[in-house]
Amino acid sequence: xxxxxxxxxxxxxxxxxxxxxxxxxxxxxxxxxxxxxxxxxxxxxxxxxxxxxxxxxxxxxxxxxxxxxxxxxxxxxxxxxxxxxxxxxxxxxxxxxxxxxxxxxxxxxxxxxxxxxxxxxxxxxxxxxxxxxxxxxxxxxxxxxxxxxxxxxxxxxxxxxxxxxxxxxxxxxxxxxxxxxxxxxxxxxxxxxxxxxxxxxxxxxxxxxxxxxxxxxxxxxxxxxxxxxxxxxxxxxxxxxxxxxxxxxxxxxxxxxxxxxxxxxxxxxxxxxxxxxxxxxxxxxxxxxxxxxxxxxxxxxxxxxxxxxxxxxxxxxxxxxxxxxxxxxxxxxxxxxxxxxxxxxxxxxxxxxxxxxxxxxxxxxxxxxxxxxxxxxxxxxxxxxxxxxxxxxxxxxxxxxxxxxxxxxxxxxxxxxxxxxxxxxxxxxxxxxxxxxxxxxxxxxxxxxxxxxxxxxxxxxxxxxxxxxxxxxxxxxxxxxxxxxxxxxxxxxxxxxxxxxxxxxxxxxxxxxxxxxxxxxxxxxxxxxxxxxxxxxxxxxxxxxxxxxxxxxxxxxxxxxxxxxxxxxxxxxxxxxxxxxxxxxxxxxxxxxxxxxxxxxxxxxxxxxxxxxxxxxxxxxxxxxxxxxxxxxxxxxxxxxxxxxxxxxxxxxxxxxxxxxxxxxxxxxxxxxxxxxxxxxxxxxxxxxxxxxxxxxxxxxxxxxxxxxxxxxxxxxxxxxxxxxxxxxxxxxxxxxxxxxxxxxxx
Length: 747
Ligand code: SF4
Fold this sequence. Notes:
By secondary structure, this protein is an alpha/beta fold. It folds into four domains: 4-59; 68-135 and 337-462 and 490-513, Rossmann fold; 156-330 and 556-577, Dimethylsulfoxide Reductase, domain 2 (3-Layer(aba) Sandwich), CATH 3.40.228.10; 597-724, Beta Barrel (Barwin-like endoglucanases). Iron/sulfur cluster (SF4) is lined by residues 10, 12-13, 15-17, 45, 48, 50-51, 181.
């Protein structure tokens, strides 16, 4: 093809920034931000380190370029190159054989990854008959989707606007380091106004340094803080009484519930001062429009995860910061074909839904829970994607692999995720994956999971596949764009894998779109757009509407899509399933003589994305090492020094880090998340240094410490200790990461 410039999009995070690619001889020779497309700001794109790594990402010598079949023992990391046809035929034959012997539930999937599209995986799984997909969704965004839907009838979007927002709270979220892009720019713009910016985080993060007020509560006590704020707002009558009377359900019960959460009582639980609690409540309630943004910091506090989200939802409802400019608004059902219609959850038979692992232990993150919620959202013609609200409990999936209880899981397809690094209890996961009859990895780069796999399939990534972001089907927004070039080598789009596997498993009638682009034509058709016409602007985002509850009709009345038709301060659905209908702080195990400190982890640090991008030299900063952070007082009390190698140990395991002394809550240890070492041998037992400095050596997803309603496991508030590491010898290196053996004769 002639040399040309073409539109494309970065896919190294979910912003999908618009780019222009210069192509010569079918190769991308340079990339520039496209100022005519989202995010319309060249500075944002140029300021992003990942943008500059795109060409290295595309052409990296370690990219997986061909289908590979295991040639040695599992974990030896020896491979034979095979054709796609052979790979798909063999995988489908094995899956059908396993289904015949153990039932469809014997297949599990692990979802994630910046190069994947979620609905094709779920479509395949529902048609195959298995309810067992796992991911880290439960500790990332899922509780807010659930809780806002329970409280307001649908998920919320939050706004931070210099003109309309009067107070902003960033609760357990650190956009300076986890985002460093559009959201962070919005925070910076808001901050120039001098209006209150309150950051709640045990660490003085870069975001906290910007704040007008920084609160550092004891880990895992956020629900108590939110309840204390509710107490102050109600006691001082800082809420709009007419709005509450007209639109809130259960005010009197909430008032009674928070009566005991006095600032003095909450100060004892949280370690904050009474003045901090009172002032935060007053600043929030006095603002004409106030926003609360929250992140993984409060998604992953185990048994208090749902409770803190419920208490924050009550704060938003009680102060009428709902469907209000500069605060929060209810998003809309997509006007294009939504994910719920693409997943085909209705094709998963009832008896298979009942086999989902965790169904008998978790109250709402189940198909039954989803149906309870959907009864109400459908009153406003809305339906959330089922896959996000019905995942299997990972801990039970790993145990079913090892113990065949309550039934055997013998196969897993891992789509762009590395559960061994990113999910709780890495040792358990490593053993579980090694016990399988079939492990397939759809990946971009070799990692500890590909090293254990039977088949590794090369995925197309950023710049070589179309990308469309639809906010998981919970909002009427879509943005994205085309690939710049055809996939290199034998890389393929994940859609192609799921479709072709589906065809080989007898799903012919359900995969009418021959390629991903054709499926996108179908998705956009209700908007009168094709994929090609959509790509001219690359965005569909109608302006938000406010005060919609005044016009939504329910039984002839305006309102919210909840059982009461109002904002549910008292949640009827939680009451139905035997959980507390009012938010409550649950006391959790604290420090002990053996484990005198509290661990927190899971925070995202740019430029990496969890375990991703560790191969890229352009993203490596010299001297960056996995760190354990403590305060100066904590380090001194333990006789530890900055830069020293330390071991962090919990009741679940131990792993090592370099000590960093920072400003943060005393007696708390924050450890980096997502670390592994591609420069080390990928073969077992090292698995790319998967156990060297891996935060998930310290965690567990067991039910004793998880949320009983949605199953969030705990990352923040794990009792731990920390001590000097023994000097270690040199690590082994193995640069032949995908050691291949010659193809066998039958190929
Ligand atoms: S990584 Fe994200 S913010 Fe950075 S250029 Fe790519 S899409 Fe944009």
